[in-house]
């Protein structure tokens, strides 16, 4: 089983819950921004090519950040689900305990270092 004590588990749960809320707020802000842009298409019309390029770059970056936030939110929710079912802190591949320092650094970690390294190959 995992070697987390009750205090560490509660701290990690709180960290995951806080991160979930931040990610949800960021995704909601992007959604509102897209809705505002869709509601006023005339606002998007720009004649200056340099300004068009800057606007497009900003939109691409915003979309990339939203995708990253969404992917992280999926991991955070999965970690909270594992916590609720009692398997948090155990590697989803090998079933061994994930090192506490790894969980403290990356609370949504689902794999031990060895399995994560293998997964990334």
Structure description:
Helices cover 70% and strands 0% of the residues. The chain is mainly α and 121 residues long. It has a single domain, classed as Four Helix Bundle (Hemerythrin (Met), subunit A) (Up-down Bundle), CATH 1.20.120.910. It is elongated and about 60 Å long. The relative contact order is 0.16. The model has no long low-confidence stretch (mean pLDDT 89).
Structural class: mainly alpha
CATH T-level fold name: Four Helix Bundle (Hemerythrin (Met), subunit A)
Strand % is under 5%
Biggest sheet character: none
Number of structural domains: 1
CATH class, anyone?
Mainly Alpha
Order of helices and strands: HHHH
The CATH architecture name reads: Up-down Bundle
Distance between the termini: 27 Å
- What helical percentage do the residues reach? over 70%
- The number of helical elements comes to 4
* Spans where pLDDT lies below 50 across 5 or more residues: none
Q: What's the number of extended β-strand segments?
A: 0
The dominant shape is elongated
Pfam family, one: zf-dskA_traR
Biased composition (Basic and acidic residues): 37-57
Protein name: Conjugal transfer protein TraR
InterPro entries: DnaK_N, Znf_DskA_TraR
